[in-house]
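Section 5.1 Outputs to date
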Amino acid sequence: MATTDRQNRLLVAEDWRKIYQAFQQADFKSYDFETLRRTMVAYLQENYPDDFNDFVESSEYVALIDLIAYIAQALSFRVDLNARENFLETAERRNSILRLARLINYNAKRNKPATGLLKIDSISTTQDVRDSSGTNLANSTIVWNDSANSNYREQFISILNAANQSGQRFGNPREKGKIGGVDTEVYTLSSNQNGLPIFQFSKAVGGVTRSFEIVPSKITDSDSIYESPPVEGTGLTYTYRTDGSGDSSKNTGFFFLFKQGTMQNTDFTVDSAITNYVKSIDTTNINDTDVWLYRLDQFGQIAESWTKVPSLSGNNAIYNSLSKDIRNIYNVVTKNNDAMDLVFGDGNFSNLPLGSFRSYYRISDNAKYALQPADMRNVQIDVGYIDANGSQQTLTITMSLKQSIYNSAATESNDSIREKAAQVYYSQNRMITAEDYQVVPLSASQEIVKVRSVNRSASGISRAKEILDPTGAYSNVSVFAEDGILYREETTPTFIFTFTKGRNIQQ
């Protein structure tokens, strides 16, 4: 047999009919080395019994078969991996799942920290503070709702008034409103710290020691108590709440907001304006809620705050519907191990970042756990403050948890991303059909497992009327809306009169 003919037969390259005939006999289900080697030997023995019949282990041709089987196994593995990792339903690598979800505008949820309120049990101060009876309260521990002290409330308020910033005496808060049906007021301590108004403490929860932080709180434009943006040199804030059930109630007294985790920051500089600039922050376990960004001036001080927008279709750093006046915007994209990317706009709908920036973020435990009142007892912090005379004083606060907390969450699982990404893409972040009302709320949190929505209104029912359910099953619920408007019409009353004589004008 000629050498050329032998090579053509070996490589099956005469024409497409020979290739098709050869492929019919090939086993494309073979991926591993042993199967590939055995299949090739069987193929040669069946199709070329006279040309290749030396299959002893020492044969040079057997070494070539081994090499080809090894390469085929490696290529098969990579081709299969590449095919699987390009589809959301079959992908296994976390990076692949996150990126495929981003293609359909779904940003996976990172871990969420345990958040709650610690109620002040007792306070004491080094300052000379006197109550209405003239008693000096310096270095005395005042206990809230103390049955042995009928004057505890006045003494409590007197000490806090002495430590509050000027103009924020009890009854004159910086913010007030009704949160969860409970009257809430926010006050600021005149703390003398130069850094962030955050106080750290640790507690063992379920046998695991976890780090927590007392953080400043706000209630403006919200239906909940939330953390103030971190700004160095600002005072620590606390809340006073009363539900009308007396001082012994769990919801009546003075409270501090706390969160699980540790606040950190990263400084970076953008030397030139770049469209769609992405700043990667590879710190792991950044939680899903506590991310802030500031632009710094030439002295390293905060010059302006940038607004975080949702990473959703139609409302992100590339195109946003917040306001045409809000142009300093960015959005946060989740990466593997709960790291993140800060994604900026293209300069058309938002400003391009330029200069020095500082990002604050909180590192929280990537776990689901519960906080019981027994886990958070006798939490004590010492707050330094400046009194009205300019002297340094110390306010010692002892707090405890009064209600169980279950709002922590681990990072969103791969299965959850696969399920919710398609649902969110299908609904386009709108609830129109009955199915939308069943699936869109699932995207709010990785902890929501199932939702059942009931249609309470239909065509022919006026939206101007109060929503009432004839069965009485769904009437006593709070109804929220973002597209309503309340207005008042003002008119000037007029009347018409005529006169024929001069004295009629006087009349």
